[in-house]
């Protein structure tokens, strides 16, 4: 993978929010923009050329999760994919029941459509999580009912990096009527995903989390699952998602996926685990009192590290780091502007825990360096000592 240059003096450690596009992706998109402007639904030569790019990308992406080409539906990103899977399932299967199971720490793109469904007569069960941010398979089994039509559990959490027992959940649901959806937006590109092995019926992703373009993702929908198109309009994506496909971005998405070979996935996880250790050992050496939110385990999303910096508010720390040219987050970027506390940390530790107002999310990416980590540690230590003094 080519190196990418960020602005001088800026340390970017908010990769769970978004990632810079890989140079190879930009090259692919630029070439495609210049050479392939046709509408993939047109039957003339220009359209056929665009259609070929579209289907080649679909094949690359399908193979990355052991799916069939026709099971991949391109969308505008994780939010649309989540909404399509959840609301589409509810509309199509409400005659079988109106009970849905999820976890308490899902992304807003899952929680908000579920809240909307609750207002329209559906019953939602929110599974609790432990202090590692994980749901219990036993709790899932206890919550399952004959009228459960959907289970939607994220593959990996975007705030604390916990990895849910997706394979075990899939095995539980293999003989149940409920369809199984997983939001894999943070996990795709880092974890080994096999939708057939894990009995996954639907899976959501977003290209901009893996150094691809924004406003693009895909929904894996297992062959045989039928529900109405979320968008009404043309017959694109085999009548499953209306709207002219963004061919340059889709081609770029495929390039981003091709860059993440199985070996590259393992390399990234190992590199990010080393960065976690570097942050924690550096802060310990500086005598900074911190604790990890979640767990340090081999099977977590290693690119996410959420830490409680005792005695210093998230706002103060984030502001001081920003002034020093270091970009981190206090939680999900999608809710960072909200005055509400993190629902993830609240579910893990309780609403009165000081962790909720004194925690940072640090997230590493392909272009993060050891020097970036050193700069982060030095500035955290400097801020803590100044504030607590």
Automatic annotation (TrEMBL):
Q: Where are the transmembrane segments?
A: none
User: Which UniProt keywords are given for this protein, alphabetically ordered?
Assistant: Iron, Iron-sulfur, Metal-binding, Pyridoxal phosphate, Transferase
Instruction: Give the top-rank taxon of the lineage listed in the UniProt record for this protein.
Output: Bacteria
The record's EC number reads: 2.8.1.7
> One Pfam family from the UniProt entry?
Aminotran_5
Keyword set includes Ribosomal protein: no
Q: Which cofactor does it need?
A: pyridoxal 5'-phosphate
**Catalyzed reaction equations:** (sulfur carrier)-H + L-cysteine = (sulfur carrier)-SH + L-alanine
Molecular function terms, GO-annotated: cysteine desulfurase activity
EC main class here is: transferase
Q: Which residues form the Aminotransferase class V domain?
A: 11-376
**InterPro entries xrefs:** Aminotrans_V_dom, Cysteine_dSase, PyrdxlP-dep_Trfase, PyrdxlP-dep_Trfase_major, PyrdxlP-dep_Trfase_small
Give the record's family classification: Belongs to the class-V pyridoxal-phosphate-dependent aminotransferase family. NifS/IscS subfamily.
Checking PANTHER family in the record gives:
CYSTEINE DESULFURASE, CYSTEINE DESULFURYLASE FAMILY MEMBER
- What protein am I looking at? Cysteine desulfurase IscS
Instruction: State the organism of origin.
Output: Periweissella ghanensis
- Gene name linked to the record: iscS_1
């Amino acid at each position: 993978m080519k190196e990418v240059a960020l602005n001088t003096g800026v340390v970017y450690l908010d990769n769970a929010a978004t990632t810079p596009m890989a140079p190879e992706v930009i090259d692919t998109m630029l070439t495609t923009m210049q050479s392939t402007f046709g509408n993939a639904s047109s039957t003339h030569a220009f359209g056929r050329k665009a259609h070929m790019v579209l289907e080649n990308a679909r094949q690359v992406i399908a193979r990355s999760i052991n799916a069939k080409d026709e099971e991949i539906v391109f969308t505008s990103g994780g939010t649309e994919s989540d909404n399509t899977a959840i609301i589409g399932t509810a509309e199509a299967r409400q005659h079988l029941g109106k009970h849905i199971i999820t976890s308490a720490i899902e992304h807003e793109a899952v929680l908000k459509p579920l809240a909307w469904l609750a207002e329209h007569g559906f019953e939602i069960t929110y599974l609790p999580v432990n202090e590692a941010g994980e749901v219990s398979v036993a709790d899932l089994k206890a919550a399952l009912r004959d009228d459960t039509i959907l289970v939607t559990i994220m593959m990996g959490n975007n705030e604390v990096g916990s990895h849910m027992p997706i394979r075990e959940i899939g095995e539980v649901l293999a003989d149940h009527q409920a369809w199984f959806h997983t939001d894999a937006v943070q996990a795709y590109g880092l974890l080994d995903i096999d939708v057939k092995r894990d009995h996954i019926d639907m899976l959501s992703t977003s290209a901009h989390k893996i150094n691809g373009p924004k406003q693009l993702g895909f929904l894996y929908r297992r062959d045989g699952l039928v529900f109405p198109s979320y968008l009404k309009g043309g017959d694109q994506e085999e009548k499953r998602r209306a709207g002219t496909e963004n061919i340059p971005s889709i081609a770029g998405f495929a390039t981003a996926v091709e860059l993440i070979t199985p070996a590259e996935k393992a390399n990234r996880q190992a590199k990010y685990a080393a960065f976690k250790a570097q942050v924690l050992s550096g802060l310990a050496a500086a005598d900074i009192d911190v604790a990890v939110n979640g767990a340090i385990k081999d099977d977590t999303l290693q690119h996410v590290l959420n830490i409680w910096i005792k005695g210093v508010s998230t706002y103060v720390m984030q502001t001081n780091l920003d002034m020093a040219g270091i970009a981190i987050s206090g939680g999900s970027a999608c809710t960072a502007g909200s005055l509400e506390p993190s629902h993830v940390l609240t579910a893990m530790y309780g609403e009165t825990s000081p962790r909720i107002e004194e925690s940072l999310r640090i997230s590493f990416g392909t272009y993060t360096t050891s020097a970036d980590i050193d700069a982060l540690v030095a500035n955290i230590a400097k801020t803590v000592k100044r504030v607590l003094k």
